Amino acid sequence: MKLKRVLCLIIALSMIVLICASCNGNNNTPDPDRKGQIIVATWNKGNIWSGDIYEWVNYFYARYYTSIQKGEMSTNDIVKLSVNAYCLVPLLEDYLKSIDRAVSEDAIEFGVLQKKIDIEDEYSEEGGYNYWKDGIGVTDDFIYEYVKYGIYNSAVREYLLEGEDVSDEKLIEYFNENSMSYATPVGYIFNTALCEVLDAADDEEWNTAFESAKEFIEKAKSGTPFSDIQTQIKEKYKEEDGYILVPYYTTDGTLTKVDLDNMPKFDDLDKYIEELEAKYTEKGMDRTADKESDEYKYYDEYLFYVYQGTVAYIFRNKLLEIGETYGTPIQGPNGWMIVEYDSYNSNPWASFEDVKDQVKEDYLASIQDDLLNDFCKQLLDKNNLTYEDVEFIPNTETTSAK
How far apart are CA 294 and CA 313, in angstroms? Predict the structure, then answer.
């Protein structure tokens, strides 16, 4: 369950009670400067009090609320997570300094700003950042520590991965266990480029993008490498101008034999599109409607089937030779697509050597959390962290010892 759904259930959570269950003797003489607080852990730097981890507990309680309710996590787990985070912030900071990887204050301040903006955007309807902060029961100071914790974890993880010596034997073992991930469907491999249309209701924009796509096709037909065409299109349709889909669709793709066999078969492409338009007109498609409406979704769906059907028609009828670009822009949900036939894949299975770099990247990604967790555990053990036997009760305004 997302945090947004949980906030309504715990919006009243403003304080956490930490209760000593067995105390081990450490809570018999409370610090007069920490009224009502109890010791939750000890380490090389001394005692860790309930007030030290109070906001971490609030945060982790909200984050893992559903897991707690399902019995997948205990409140004791929340206390330990909170103690660990509280300790790891300074420990990881010191470690990064020791290996000349210190994180600048500017980077942390930027991270804090970005985190606040993200929270503000996500909870804009409910009250933004202040709503989230009050609902969780944390302060601006906590956000600063939380962001540091995330940045330090990422920096250490990256450093550990750099130093990880991975043998070919390990990589081959991982490759064999995940061979399906590196299989390429049997079928037609084709390269695509998109001349994006931002407003599907604007005829002039459609026409302009169509003419642009035709010009790029002519360049490809005249011998310009398709990769150069893709680069030129990305330069013309820039993200800062709103064309965010161009990089995603100006890439390589695969149309498998299974997909081709299951697509509608027809001999007349113009007739197919005409019948498709009639079908969706009857359903009520409307490109001028609100984009969240069913009418607009029908229009979007119609354009998808136009594109899919056209590509299927091209390859089923073998209208292209390898290395050839289709002579007409193909209309799709996001603009005009340009298609080049790259190759035909008859062997789905990749060899280890062909995908070795990707296998290594995937393997490291699969072990990165374990590497970091093991490192953090060793760091905490080295600093003699021990936990008191405590539990907490949410939604009360005092902190006391049993």
Answer: 28
309-347 tens-digit pLDDT: 999 999 999 999 999 999 999 999 999 999 999 998 888
pLDDT in tens, 353-364: 989 999 998 999
Q: Extract the tokens encoding 339.
A: 């298609």
16-20 and 390-394: which strand pairing? antiparallel
Give the rounded distance of the alpha carbon of 139 from its chain centre: 26
**Those residues with Cβ within 8 angstroms of residue 31's Cβ, 6 or more apart along the chain or in another chain:** 37, 47, 49
Contact 351, 235 (CB under 8 A): no
How far is it, in rounded angstroms, from Cα 99 to Cα 69? 41
**Taking each helix axis from N to C terminus, what angle separates 50-63 and 128-136, rounded to the nearest 10 degrees?**
120
- Give span(s): CATH 3.10.50, the chain: 184-345
Question: CA 82, CA 77: separation in Å to the nearest integer?
Answer: 9
Convert the pLDDT of each residue in 161-174 to its tens digit: 887 888 999 999 99
Pick the CATH number of 184-345 from 1.10.533, 3.10.50, 1.20.58, 3.30.160: 3.10.50
Mean pLDDT (the chain) is: 88
Reference 268, options 311, 313, 312, 307; nearest CA is 313
Residue 399 · residue 95 · CB < 8 Å: no
Q: Please, which residues bridge with residue 22 across strands?
A: none
**Euclidean distance between CA atoms 272 and 54, whole angstroms:** 65
Mind giving me the DSSP string for 120-156? Answer: HHHTTTTTHHHHHHHHHT--HHHHHHHHHHHHHHHHH
Task: Name which of 93-102, 116-125, 261-270, 315-324 the model is least confident about.
Answer: 261-270
Q: 57 falls in which pLDDT band (50, 70, 90)?
A: very high
Beta carbons of 300 and 201 less than 8 angstroms apart: no
Dist. CA 335–CA 69, nearest whole Å: 47
Average pLDDT on 202-223 reads 97
Nearest Cα to Cα of residue 311 among 334, 337, 335: 337
